[in-house]
Amino acid sequence: MLKRALLGPVVVAVGVYAVLCVYLYSVQTQFIFFPSRTIEFTPAVGGCSYEDVTLAVEGQKLHGWWLPAPLDAKPPFAGKTLVYFHGNGGNVGANAGHTCRLNRLGFAVFIFDYRGYGQSDAPPGGKIHERTLYEDGEAALRYVKSERRAERVVLYGHSLGGAVAIEMAKRHPESAALITEAAFTSLLDMANKDPVFRLFPVGLILDQKMENEAKLREVRMPVLVIHGKADTLIPPAMAERLHSAATGPKRLYLVAGAGHDDVADTAGADYGAQVAALLEMVK
What we know:
Blueprint: H1 2-32, E1 34-35, E2 51-57, E3 60-67, E4 81-85, E5 89-90, H2 96-105, E6 108-112, H3 130-146, E7 153-158, H4 161-171, E8 177-181, H5 187-192, H6 202-205, H7 212-216, E9 223-228, H8 236-245, E10 250-255, H9 263-267, H10 269-279
Parallel strand pairs: 1-5, 4-6, 4-7, 7-8, 8-9, 9-10
Antiparallel strand pairs: 2-3, 3-6
Helix pairs in contact: 3-4
């Protein structure tokens, strides 16, 4: 009798747990991506000139900005094109100021919105996915190489954009260099930071992996890993792991007092000096 009395609540608990697992699987993109359609700022906020760009991917439209290199660009920035992969929130507008900062260093810069962000079309089914990000990244690289004749491409990824930059570095070893800023080791590691998610088999639930640490072991180009020591969203220890995983020429730049989104502002002129030091490694 006691066993029967206990069996009912156990069955209910197991059923509820299974339903929660299915629910988490179905809504996982809502925990990963936070797109915005409204573009509030352009590179003009930093005094940079730019061109609106539209390009195609899988029959859909991507919107981006092309910032031509300054006429007085000097080595080691001169002659290099930086492709900027932004993070999981906002859109290109939230990155306009930093895009202009990188442009003023001497890079030609291309920044774009993934499908589902800004003025880019919605992805198939309306759901952003790791797969669609990589398709969009490929389209961006095709654009700068075919339309802008870029030969020495520097891949730059902030936060979740670091996953796109690392995937592109893995696929395109001919790229000149890779810069990650505030990037994570993997989506599973990020999920396991949350004690609530640790109650579930997240490794089975996630159909998006973004295994940055593992992929970096295959990257041979010069790599600069940047991270704020006061980043409370993605711990600096992840930056150290990413740096350790890279197998080619590499640099680790941890900025005291910097959080997730203010590394360059906090670092000041030293930020550009660290990027220049990376480019000196480019053959």
